Amino acid sequence: MGILLLIMSGVKTKSEIYKKTEDSKRAFYKIAYVITSMRPKQWIKNGFVFAGLIFSKSFFKPESIFRSICAFMLFSLVSGSVYIINDIIDRKRDALHPKKRFRPIASGNLQTHEAMVCALITLTISLVVAFLLDILFSIILVLYFVQAVVYSISLKNVVIIDVILIATGFVLRTAGGAVVLHVRISPWLIVCTTLLALFLALNKRKNELLVLSKNAGSHRKILKEYTPELIDQMLSVVTPTTLISYALYTFNAEKSYCMMLTIPFVLYGIFRYQYLASTRDMGGSPELALLNDKPLLINIVLWVIASIVIVASD
């Protein structure tokens, strides 16, 4: 009898171990789905916060570097929360998209209530840390979150306003990167950021129209308002304006006229991105274009190095 009880006890123990293992796997997958929904690859866009660090000549100060990295991480976490909320709102439409239907929320691998709880926890912690880091920076971060949520809920369906709001998000990143360092925000930096963001947003809309084709309107309502021809006309205005604005910025740079030497990098970067958007189907994801296209990545790295050297040598 005692032997039998011992055997039964052993079986129960193995069952419990198996159950705990399965629970651990399930928890691991849930965490992976949450991280995936926060889209870490898109966090590259938050690199705009480092513009203030570069152009204010603060990259020699350890404290400034630390504050900029903190700002980058906080924008990444808040933007990740926004992506989760956006995926919850768009889950039915994403299920119709040839690529987005595999996202954790759209595919059903991550339940909406689980995703929302994670988004709110991440958002709360991020805003508290931002407040401790710098009050004005925390206000900009709140504005970024509000703007992004309002965009996701309604204004993304308002023609032209949708791409302007996308550009606003980039401007807030740039402004936040300057504010957290307590340095002056250059008007030229804001103008160049706005135009570059519009360039990226319009290419994204054009890519969605081409990829989704006849189903574009059913996936994203705003796409009914755009045509490839209209976007091409807008790009014909935004693209040269972006280049001219950056050129004027370098002419009027407080540091040195040597900043003009960085114009070829910007020129090549814009043309290369247009090439990728038109021939490689990368216009819908700037982060993928940056990560997957070596010439574009090398060009951006060289621009950063050249800008740092010129600013530092002044």
Explain what you see:
By secondary structure, this protein is an all-alpha fold. The protein has two domains: 43-185, Tetracycline Repressor, domain 2 (Orthogonal Bundle); 186-314. The chain has 14 helices and no strands. It is globular, with a radius of gyration of 23 Å. It starts with a helix and ends with a helix. The model is unreliable at 4-8 (pLDDT under 50).
SSE blueprint and pairings:
Layout: H1 2-37, H2 51-55, H3 62-89, H4 91-94, H5 104-107, H6 112-133, H7 135-153, H8 161-179, H9 187-212, H10 216-219, H11 228-251, H12 263-279, H13 286-292, H14 294-313
Helix pairs in contact: 3-6, 3-7, 6-7, 7-8, 8-9, 9-11, 11-12, 12-14
Measured as a percent range, the helix fraction is over 70%
Number of domains: 2
Cα-atom radius of gyration:
23 Å
Question: What percent strand?
Answer: under 5%
Give me the secondary-structure category.
mainly alpha
Shape: globular
Query: What is the N-to-C order of secondary-structure elements (H for helix, E for strand)?
Result: HHHHHHHHHHHHHH
